[in-house]
Amino acid sequence: xxxxxxxxxxxxxxxxxxxxxxxxxxxxxxxxxxxxxxxxxxxxxxxxxxxxxxxxxxxxxxxxxxxxxxxxxxxxxxxxxxxxxxxxxxxxxxxxxxxxxxxxxxxxxxxxxxxxxxxxxxx
Length: 123
What we know:
The protein has helices at 13-24, 36-46, 60-69, 84-93, 104-122; strands at 5-9, 29-33, 50-54, 74-79, 97-100.
């Protein structure tokens, strides 16, 4: 069975550290990245099944590219504003879920749901 790994790209360092702590108990590897190119490299290197991406660090076309480049990885997008139109656009671009960046518990649940779904498809 493939180990569960996650890669994060977030703009808020406090949220990032909170998520790293929360995710560390559920994932084998949690990698915090500083740029989209570093995230891509991290997904490849660590065979991440989940990518958590702050929409303040990426565009919808970036989400779409990640979705096509890494079809086995689930993408959970975050944003500090609860904007339903933006969230719908992120889902249309290929995100598997969208959560407020301040909702650490919601992001953790979305990542776990995505990881379980990925594992079920791979089995």
